[in-house]
Write a structure and sequence with these properties.
Oligomer: single chain
Number of domains: 2
CATH topology of the largest domain: Nucleotidyltransferase, domain 5
CATH class of the largest domain: Alpha Beta
Helix content: 25-40%
Shape: globular
CATH architecture of the largest domain: 2-Layer Sandwich
Structural class: alpha/beta
């Protein structure tokens, strides 16, 4: 079956699309990437999404227009990836505006903006969307949803295998070994903390909006991180919280950045960016310290930040850090491929969440299917 996966993450920089073929076992399917594309959001739309993701007030009319604009962009990415309309099914994450994990007895909730029926009509294909809702309804975090897909697509090795996505937020999957005393351990995964959110926001602020990211990590490479500050930041409650846990711009957004910039006011901008970059790597390294994986496969936009990657290698001692692309899944393909698989699982009535990851009461088939009008 050919399935198109669409993903737009916390960075809100655009839509990644993957057309894949799946067959065979649900738990360990045969898969092949047939095509992929990445379509950037128009700058005005991107800025609207970043503002909304940090709590900016929108009128109902503005929210409706935003949902429609996002849907049209998702359709454009789908059509660029699959111009011949080969896909039998589409899986779409939508654009997260706000994520509220369960806490203090309150159930979790999450808003992924998308008009599913409109996307189905535009593409003339069934669309599986709203994939977090079922897990949230069962008391789970609703995120991350990619770890079960990582385990199904990549499989196990002799030791612990970790898969890291460096998007706006850094999220990690830990796949148990294929053999040895820990072979019966559970799959795990969680949001570590910021990856690119704080770095990107700082670059935009320092450049007065002329730059949206630290291309290649070149700016941060000119500075030196303040290790004392990083050590103190790592004591933040979320970063000390054990999994299951998930987060987003609600916690690591503009307000959080401003507090950190205030704490670094004595540093030059180069050093501030170096500190923020090293902090992102340190959050990951701290989380992996207890169960050091044999290898760490890295995907997402942060892979192209050479300074961030160097910090990861330096801080994750004893772990082989290498790009996921070496296994045939490029930086911008991983999460779109995962949502294609989630849609395939939905089609086959196969659970898509992992209760060991999200904390939900039971496994569930994820998503709602909208069929073309």
């Amino acid at each position: 079956m050919r399935v198109l996966g669409l993903m737009s993450g916390t960075s809100a920089d655009g839509v990644d699309a993957v057309l894949a073929r799946f067959s065979g076992s649900r738990r360990r399917p045969h898969w092949q990437i047939l095509a992929s594309a990445s379509v950037p959001y128009p700058e005005r739309l991107r800025q609207q999404l970043i503002a909304a993701g940090q709590g900016a007030c929108l009128s109902t009319a503005e929210l409706l227009n935003l949902a429609e604009a996002i849907t049209v962009q998702q359709a454009a990415a789908a059509q660029q990836c699959d111009p011949g309309g080969l896909a039998d099914l589409v899986g779409c994450h939508g654009q997260t505006l706000w994520h509220r994990p369960p806490a203090n007895g309150q159930r979790g909730a999450s808003l992924q903006l998308l008009q599913g029926p409109l996307l189905a009509a535009l593409l003339q294909r069934p669309v599986v969307f709203d994939c977090r809702a079922a897990d949230l309804a069962l008391g789970g975090q609703g995120a991350p949803l990619v770890p079960p897909a990582d385990a199904a697509l990549l499989g196990r090795i002799a030791g612990w295998r970790a898969v890291l996505n460096l998007g706006g937020i850094a999220n990690v999957t830990l796949i148990p070994p294929a053999q040895g005393p820990e072979r019966n351990a559970e799959l795990s995964g969680w949001d570590c903390g910021p990856a690119n959110t704080l770095i990107d926001l700082a670059v935009q602020q320092f450049s007065s909006g002329k730059r949206s990211c630290d291309e290649g990590g070149a700016w941060a490479a000119m500075g030196n991180p303040d290790e004392a500050l990083i050590a103190s930041w790592l004591q933040q409650p979320y970063l000390q919280q054990p999994p299951p846990k998930s987060t987003g711009r609600e916690l690591f957004g503009q307000a959080d950045l401003q507090q950190r910039l205030d704490a670094m006011s004595h540093l030059a901008q180069n050093d501030q960016l170096a500190t923020l970059t090293a902090f992102s790597a340190a959050c990951v390294a701290q989380d992996l310290r207890e169960r050091a994986p044999v290898e760490l496969l890295v995907a997402g936009g942060g892979c192209r930040n050479a300074t961030l990657m160097e910090q990861l290698r330096r801080r994750c001692r004893g772990t082989i850090v290498r790009p996921l692309a070496e296994l045939g899944i490029a930086d911008q393909q991983r999460e779109a491929l995962a949502f294609a698989l989630l849609a395939w699982w939905h089609h086959h009535n196969h659970p898509g969440n992992a209760i060991s990851v999200t904390g939900a009461r039971r496994p569930a088939v994820l998503g709602v299917c909208a069929r073309p009008a």
